[in-house]
Amino acid sequence: MSGILHAVFFSPTHGSKKLALAVAWPLAQALGKELCEHDLTYPPGRAKKLCCGPDDVLLLAFPVYAGRVPRLLDGFLSVLDGKGARAAVMAVYGNRHYDDALLEAVDALQKRNCDVVAAAAFIAEHSLASAIGTGRPDDRDMELAGEFARHTAQAILSGHAGPVAVPGNHPYKELPPAVDIRPKTSEACTQCMLCASQCPVQVISEDDPALVNQGCIRCCACVKACPEQAKFFDQEPVLKIIAMLEEKCRDRKEPEIFTV
């Protein structure tokens, strides 16, 4: 087969990228396609328009935010030109639930003239609560990522049309009201500026990392990137979410795979 496999991922804390590439490499090999990576984590990547060809395959991977596709991807998805390309989606969540995110992603790609024939929900360590999904994706997750690649290749080579059936509801889960919560910075900060470079919305000052502008999405990229553990959230709403997760979401969830 000719064409390109477009591996598209938004991955502030790297879990979605790791899983996307674990699927993309064997999938590209199985289909005989060139692999092209599209990183949507930072604004320049999200500003580019992706135009697929009819022989192309699109793999979209993203972290689940409040049971939905991250709103930061709305602009990119709204101008995507699928041209009938086959597609697969991966929703990566922090061991709570993916709610309507998988369905929303399938719907979004179908609207952009992609034929979505496979989908999966995978687990990564929760960005806010490291005790939830600790160490994931792990070896078993990566093994299942390879299995998802095989199932997706089979679905594409079979010639069956999508969309793949996935769990979820219409209308989608209502998003919570926007709140202005920004990370704090302790005196341990050495001003290495790694946090600013890792912020997907670029709201951390490049002159003073303790200065954070409005617009934080609480992805925790800065928290996890800081070598001194100087970035943190301790606001009451965040602490309540962490307490809920630690009480109710410790039992291991397993990946789910769906194909036509």
Description:
- 45% of the residues are buried.
- The mean pLDDT is 97.
- The protein has a six-stranded mixed sheet with strand order 2-1-3-4-5-8, sandwiched between helices. A two-stranded antiparallel ribbon has the order 6-7.
- The chain has 260 residues and is α/β, with parallel strands linked by helices.
- The chain has eight helices and eight strands, in the order βαβαβαβαβαβααβαβ.
- This is 4Fe-4S ferredoxin iron-sulfur binding domain protein.
- Keywords: Iron, Iron-sulfur, Metal-binding.
Distance between the termini: 20 Å
Average of the residue pLDDT scores = 97
CATH topology of the largest domain: Rossmann fold
CATH architecture of the largest domain: 3-Layer(aba) Sandwich
Helix content range of the residues, please?
25-40%
Structure at a glance:
32% of the residues lie in helices and 17% in strands. It is of the alpha/beta class and 260 residues long.
Key features of this structure:
260 residues; alpha/beta; Rossmann fold; Alpha-Beta Plaits; 2 domains
Summarize the helices and strands and which ones pair or pack.
Layout: E1 4-9, H1 15-31, E2 34-39, H2 43-47, E3 57-63, H3 74-79, E4 86-93, H4 101-111, E5 115-123, H5 139-158, E6 184-185, H6 194-198, H7 221-225, E7 231-232, H8 236-248, E8 256-259
Parallel strand pairs: 1-2, 1-3, 3-4, 4-5
Antiparallel strand pairs: 5-8, 6-7
